[in-house]
Amino acid sequence: FSLIVAATEELGIGYLNNLPWRLPKDMAFFKQVTTKIPKNVVNKENVQNAVIMGRVTWESIPPKFRPLENRLNIVISRNPSYDLQLADDNQNVILVSSFEEALKRIDETKNPRVFVIGGAQMYRMAIHNPECDSIILTRIKTQVNCDTFFPEINIKNYRLAEHKELEEYV
């Protein structure tokens, strides 16, 4: 699985349980990356990528955009009876109580790519998981107030990819 995140130079990712910026181009990039089915998937019928997020990230998504379309949404909450506040019985959302359970719910034939999309707790758990193979990081160059941060990246575990690799991926 991959982590996908936009962060400041100080690794700030949030403020008051929301994104501290509005970047339409980055949102479009996020959607493109998290919905694109890899070219090597032959039968694309009933196939969609999965996004894993914590409850706070779920709640930060405006209700009209929940669940994130064309992706399996897996929401992690310690409360097993948490109300996802869905308008109908949406099959594209699964509520689980742990990161490990979220990974077990992935069907690699139906969910070829898996993205952890936040928040900070999910990133902390995921970045140390041996199945985490990439971090797609957008750097926010502007100074922004943040109270939530992405964990330090151990550069021994990752390498900086060439831009061409990113282009091929997306």
TrEMBL record:
<dbReference type="InterPro" id="IPR024072">
    <property type="entry name" value="DHFR-like_dom_sf"/>
</dbReference>
<protein>
    <recommendedName>
        <fullName>Dihydrofolate reductase</fullName>
        <ecNumber>1.5.1.3</ecNumber>
    </recommendedName>
</protein>
<comment type="similarity">
    <text>Belongs to the dihydrofolate reductase family.</text>
</comment>
<dbReference type="Pfam" id="PF00186">
    <property type="entry name" value="DHFR_1"/>
</dbReference>
<dbReference type="GO" id="GO:0050661">
    <property type="term" value="F:NADP binding"/>
</dbReference>
<dbReference type="GO" id="GO:0005739">
    <property type="term" value="C:mitochondrion"/>
</dbReference>
<dbReference type="InterPro" id="IPR017925">
    <property type="entry name" value="DHFR_CS"/>
</dbReference>
<dbReference type="GO" id="GO:0046654">
    <property type="term" value="P:tetrahydrofolate biosynthetic process"/>
</dbReference>
<comment type="pathway">
    <text>Cofactor biosynthesis; tetrahydrofolate biosynthesis; 5,6,7,8-tetrahydrofolate from 7,8-dihydrofolate: step 1/1.</text>
</comment>
<dbReference type="GO" id="GO:0006730">
    <property type="term" value="P:one-carbon metabolic process"/>
</dbReference>
<feature type="domain" description="DHFR">
    <location>
        <begin position="1"/>
        <end position="170"/>
    </location>
</feature>
<dbReference type="GO" id="GO:0046655">
    <property type="term" value="P:folic acid metabolic process"/>
</dbReference>
<keyword id="KW-0521">NADP</keyword>
<keyword id="KW-0560">Oxidoreductase</keyword>
<keyword id="KW-0554">One-carbon metabolism</keyword>
<dbReference type="InterPro" id="IPR001796">
    <property type="entry name" value="DHFR_dom"/>
</dbReference>
<dbReference type="GO" id="GO:0004146">
    <property type="term" value="F:dihydrofolate reductase activity"/>
</dbReference>
<dbReference type="GO" id="GO:0046452">
    <property type="term" value="P:dihydrofolate metabolic process"/>
</dbReference>
<dbReference type="InterPro" id="IPR012259">
    <property type="entry name" value="DHFR"/>
</dbReference>
